[in-house]
Design goal:
The complex is a heterodimer of chains A (503) and B (305). Chain A is built from 17 helices and 16 strands. Among the domains of chain A are: 126 residues, no CATH class; 224 residues, Cytochrome-c3 Hydrogenase, chain B, CATH 1.10.645. In chain A, 53% of the residues are buried. Chain A is globular, with a radius of gyration of 22 Å. In chain A, strands 1, 3, 4, 5 and 6 form a five-stranded mixed β-sheet that branches. Helices cover 68% and strands 0% of the residues of chain B. Chain B is globular. The chains are: A alpha+beta (503), B mainly alpha (305). The interface between A and B is medium-sized, with 31 and 31 residues.
Chain lengths: 503, 305
């Protein structure tokens, strides 16, 4: 434990200060850390000259960083320590061809050739179309049948492949294969001029544009020595909460639609639009694009806008309460939500679930409380009462978060007397030889960006982690021994991002 | 002549009523909803299209829609719509007719299996299972009617000497039968809470998933067949609800269609206020309908002394 370096969310770390330990002690320290209620924020590879480095950023209620040097392979921590490493190790193998030996399920994450031209870890020929060379988990037996869904779906949703191993209606195993939307976001960040970074960050996942862009801008501000005035921080926090409310409401409506209970689906659909419109009032874009810039915000919030938001909230809050009552008090809906797609607290801890999916399974972690940024230091935390880990809990947590977020926006609006000026995209230089981690609680959960600069202050490595990276496994586990017909409901209760995962 | 007129009117009017369901559901969620004649427009649109066939399918796939639609139409030939004597009738026709509907289902299932898609196999298994359970209720109803009326033909049930209606001596028992038959109607016609006709989620579908591969005129036939099937069950309930005098002939029709429309409104109402059941719980729902009729059958022992 002593070797772990304590770092701050959004604080600069000199690259030379990152502790470098032998792989054995790296493995021992991390194994011990994750066993004692520690979770992984980032775990990625980096090639420095001819050295292959692994960097891990972990958290309990504080953030720590550790690095090690490995050769062409290393002993998998998934095999020996915890499932929390699973996806990260696969990603390392895919991005740099550094193979985690004895990894229990080593297959590609997003289907692309590795960055350094090393032999491919999975034996894929990338001139061929996806899916390439990979096997699925198989269940043998007389009554077992396999159902393959996607990547092209019946609704207008993103592509993903779901492979069910079923016996009759019961699902034994669900394996989720994504990667169909891989755009090479991380490398794009290192190639384009600085002023384009926020635009790319906003497009990582279209429904989380504020969340991802906040992470990006906070990193650039710290490295570029820019300060953000309190008025701008308030607007950023309001925007993040509006994004959260809009998405939660949209999902509650969709959950209702999935169980064929139409009235809330229609009402919530309209109310979601009202919140997107509030974002438009704030910045001119319904998804909050171009609002957050390094150094501040592009539009100041005037008293007029503040009044519009306040009055709209006053009008919408009782409506939301009534529709929630309608949804949560209908017995037939309760019968569908309760004890469906349960992820036990132990399972959620083993997988390291984040966001509402984690909170619904009793993991209290909320980055707004543990690693507060912007105005969150002065704001109250939320409490969730329903933590059974089923669809009902995930829906209830969202309901509670909606009213909490409305409360937060009210508090922020009252503070908004503090002045703020608009920022335009300016030229700035980044601190050389530095690493920075930014964490924000997006509506899905913990979003984290990690940025490393080289000796000239150019971005050498940009690592993005969407909460979906942790939670897709949670969805797969929620389907164990569940009926296959409950899949759409479970899927919607998690509502994970495809492109946020695919990057 | 009256019989043929009434049948023709029913065949023309059947696609109108599902429009009522859509309208009711739309009103519940505060929307205007599609026009009442939407099903006619869709039908014409589908007829204008071509059908696409997968190379892995055989003649069974093409036969499915035709047989299921023909089966549903055939039932209406034997049904006293508006208590007007049906076109055909013979002793025992009810049993034959329910099996003709069963034959239609058999071919729909066979066509679904013919596509070799994993979804369709799943849907077929569900449809066969729930259809089997619903059959128990239907035959319990037929047994009860035989006890009450001594007949096994639709014509005798509603146009015979002792018509079955709420006002007949054992009429109160019909309340149980009506509830039960309504549950069967929801099951057999893939309505909420058993199935969701509006969903696009293949994994949860029962009936819809079996017809996913059908297109154009084939799909039009399937839709038409489903309108007639729903019309038949709704008309069955309507005749139990409102006693009509067979002697009045065509004059019965306005009242009949008014009550029929109410049955469709009830379907729309149920679909608006309930969510779908878990698939695992659905058999309980269907078997409840069987229990209700069985209970009614036991009670008739008191009336028929």
């Amino acid at each position: 434990m002593d070797n772990l370096l304590h770092i701050e969310n959004g604080g600069i770390v000199k690259r030379s200060d990152i502790p470098l330990v032998s792989f054995d002690s790296f493995a021992t320290i991390l194994s011990e850390f994750v066993e004692n209620d520690g979770y992984i924020v980032q775990f990625f590879a980096l090639v420095e000259g001819d050295k292959n480095k692994l960097i891990a950023v972990v958290r309990n209620n504080q953030l720590f960083i550790l690095s090690t040097e490995v050769g062409e392979n290393f002993a998998s921590l998934t095999a020996t320590a915890s499932e929390k490493f699973h996806m990260f190790e696969r990603e390392i193998a895919e991005q740099y061809g550094i193979v985690p030996k004895d990894h229990p399920w080593l297959k590609m994450v997003r289907y692309h050739a590795n960055y350094r031209g090393a032999p491919d870890a999975f034996g894929n020929n990338y001139s061929e179309d996806i899916p390439g060379n990979y096997s699925y988990f198989q269940v043998e037996g007389e009554a077992v049948h396999e159902v393959a869904v996607g990547p092209v779906h019946a609704g207008i949703i993103e592509p993903g492949h779901f492979r069910f191993q079923c016996s009759g209606e019961e699902v034994f195993s669900l394996e989720i294969q994504l990667g169909y939307q891989h755009r090479g976001v991380e490398n794009l960040f290192t190639e384009v001029p600085l002023k384009r970074l926020p635009i790319i960050a906003e497009s990582i996942a279209g429904d989380t544009s504020i969340g991802h862009n906040l992470c990006c801008c906070q990193a650039l501000e710290a490295l570029g020595g820019l300060s953000v005035d309190p008025g701008a921080q308030i607007v950023r926090s309001i925007a993040l909460e509006l994004e959260r409310i809009a998405n939660h409401i949209g999902d509650l409506g969709a959950l209702s639609g999935d169980v064929a209970f139409n009235p809330p689906a229609a009402y919530f659909g309209r109310i979601r639009g009202e919140f997107l419109n509030l974002l438009q009032v704030l910045c001119g874009n319904r998804f909050g694009k171009s609002l957050v810039l390094p150094g501040g915000i592009s539009q100041i919030m005037t008293a007029e806008q503040s009044t519009i938001i306040e009055e709209k909230l006053k009008e919408l809050e009782p409506e939301i309460r009534h529709v929630c009552d309608l949804l949560f008090s209908a017995h037939t809906v309760q019968a569908r939500f309760e004890q469906t797609g349960t992820v036990s607290n132990q399972m959620a801890r083993d997988l390291g679930l984040v966001g509402y999916a984690g909170r619904a399974s009793g993991i209290e972690y909320d980055a707004r409380v543990t690693f507060p940024t912007e105005s969150y230091r002065q704001l109250p935390a939320n409490r969730n009462e329903m933590t059974n880990g089923d669809v009902n809990s995930r829906a209830t947590v969202r309901k509670e978060e909606i009213s909490h977020s409305i409360h937060l926006i009210r508090l922020l609006l009252n503070k908004a007397g503090e002045t703020s000026s608009t920022t335009i995209m300016q030229d700035f230089t980044l601190e050389p030889d530095a690493l920075i981690i930014t964490i924000n609680e997006g509506w899905r959960g913990e979003i984290s960006h990690c940025l490393m600069t080289d000796a000239e202050g150019k971005i050498e490595r940009y690592k993005v982690k969407d909460p979906s990276f942790h939670n897709w496994t949670g969805l797969a586990m929620s389907l164990r021994n569940e009926e296959i017909s409950e899949f759409p409901l479970c899927n919607k209760s998690f509502n994970l991002s495809y492109c946020g995962f695919d990057l | 002549m009256e019989s043929i007129l009434s049948l023709g009117l029913a065949l023309l009017a059947a696609p109108l009523f599902p429009g009522i369901i859509l309208k009711v559901k739309a009103l519940f969620v505060g929307k205007k909803g599609p026009p009442l004649f939407i099903k006619y427009y869709t039908f014409v649109k589908l007829l204008k299209k071509g059908s696409a066939y997968s190379t892995s399918t055989t003649f069974v796939f093409a036969a499915g829609p035709i047989i299921s639609c023909a089966g549903a139409i055939m039932v209406l030939f034997f049904f006293p719509i508006g208590a007007i004597a049906p076109v055909f009738s013979f002793h025992g026709d009810v049993i034959v007719l329910f099996y003709i509907l069963g034959l239609g289902r058999f071919f729909t299932i066979a066509a679904a299996l013919d596509t070799a898609s994993p979804f369709q196999g799943m849907g077929a298994a569900r449809e066969a299972f729930f259809g089997t359970l619903a059959e128990a209720s239907i035959f319990a109803i037929l047994i009860l009617f035989y006890r009450m009326n001594g007949s096994l033909s639709f014509a005798d049930y509603f146009t015979g000497l002792q018509p079955i209606s709420l006002t007949s001596p054992a009429g109160s028992l019909l309340l149980l039968v009506i509830v039960s038959l309504f549950m069967v109607l929801l099951t057999e016609n893939s309505r909420v809470p058993v199935d969701d006709p509006a969903t696009h989620l293949e994994l949860t579908m029962i009936h819809e998933v079996m017809v996913l591969d059908h297109s154009g005129p084939d799909l039009a036939l399937i839709e038409l067949g489903s309108f007639y099937k729903l019309f038949f069950y709704s008309a069955f309930i309507t005749l139990m609800l409102c006693p009509l005098d067979p002697a009045r002939g065509l004059l019965n029709l306005p009242l009949f269609y008014a009550v029929l429309a109410l049955v469709y409104v009830a379907i729309g109402f149920i679909e608006s206020v309930t969510a779908r059941f878990k698939m695992r719980r659905t058999p309980k729902f269907i078997l409840t309908s069987c229990t209700l009729v069985f209970f009614a059958a036991i009670l008739t022992m008191g009336f028929n002394k």
